[in-house]
Write a structure and sequence with these properties.
The complex is a heterodimer of chains A (about 110) and B (about 110).
Chain A lengths: L3 E4 L2 E4 L5 E7 L5 E7 L5 E9 L2 E4 L6 E3 L9 E3 L8 E8 L8 E2 L3 E5 L1
Parallel strand pairs in A: 2-11
Antiparallel strand pairs in A: 1-3, 3-8, 4-5, 4-9, 5-6, 7-8, 9-10, 9-11
Chain B lengths: L8 E5 L4 E6 L8 E7 L6 E6 L4 E2 L4 E4 L5 E6 L8 E8 L12 E6 L1
Parallel strand pairs in B: 1-9
Antiparallel strand pairs in B: 2-7, 3-4, 3-8, 5-6, 6-7, 8-9
The chains are: A mainly beta (about 110), B mainly beta (about 110).
Chain lengths: ~110, ~110
């Protein structure tokens, strides 16, 4: 049971480049979300989804796009990378049912130079 | 969203109990109290959560004040593997859309 899988684990981008961070879960969870974590800080919510075809913005959505075409996948797109987007990105999923926990991926460490 | 207040850091000796406090004076009636921890270079992992009553699981206990304005995560016997940042988070029961603070960094002393 893989849980939440994020790829790649590490990435270096040049300013202005675009890329997609991948997130997949095999638990048939309806709820998925993306967070970023800057050094010494807690995680901040970027975007989230409560099911296929449904997404919404979190705390810090600017510069990021998401889509949810399947239950399993929730990719995060950086359209034009900026140094301020240097961070560790975590994807999470949960069933959305009462009294359940969220599962987090191992993170993608992104550096924008 | 209601916010939580936690001490920035705490220390504990190995094999002793640890009490990690969290204040959440603006908690709403539908907010669950969630605790997650983040080991170095890893994603957060679930510890425990509760609504009104105290909760126990294999990892920890959660003691919730009667007025629900504070709670305490209890690790019964700290091990070196428990060294992590512990986050107290308020949220609805969906396990989604968490708003993390800076958490409490727990150091376990051998």
């Amino acid at each position: 049971n893989a849980g939440v899988t994020q790829t790649p684990k590490f990435q270096v981008l040049k300013t202005g480049q675009s890329m997609t961070l991948q997130c997949a879960q095999d638990m048939n969870h309806e709820y998925m979300s993306w967070y970023r974590q800057d050094p010494g800080m807690g995680l901040r919510l970027i975007h989230y989804s409560v099911g296929a075809g449904i997404t919404d913005q979190g705390e810090v959505p600017n510069g990021y796009n998401v889509s949810r075409s399947t239950t399993e996948d929730f990719p995060l797109r950086l359209l034009s990378a900026a140094p301020s987007q240097t961070s560790v990105y975590f994807c999470a999923s949960s069933s959305g049912q009462k009294n359940t926990e969220a599962f987090f991926g191992q993170g993608t460490r992104l550096t924008v130079v | 969203d209601a916010k939580t207040t936690q001490p920035n850091s705490m220390e504990s000796n190995e094999e002793e109990p640890v009490h990690l406090p969290c204040n959440h004076s603006t908690i709403s009636g539908t907010d669950y109290i969630h605790w997650y921890r983040q080991l170095p270079s890893q994603g957060p992992e679930y510890v425990i959560h509760g609504l009104t009553s105290n909760v126990n699981n294999r990892m920890a206990s959660l003691a919730i004040a009667e007025d629900r304005k504070s709670s305490t995560l209890i690790l019964h016997r700290a091990t070196l593997r428990d060294a992590a940042v512990y986050y107290c988070i308020l949220g609805e029961d969906t396990g989604n859309q968490f708003y993390f603070g800076t958490g409490t960094s727990l150091t376990v002393i051998p």
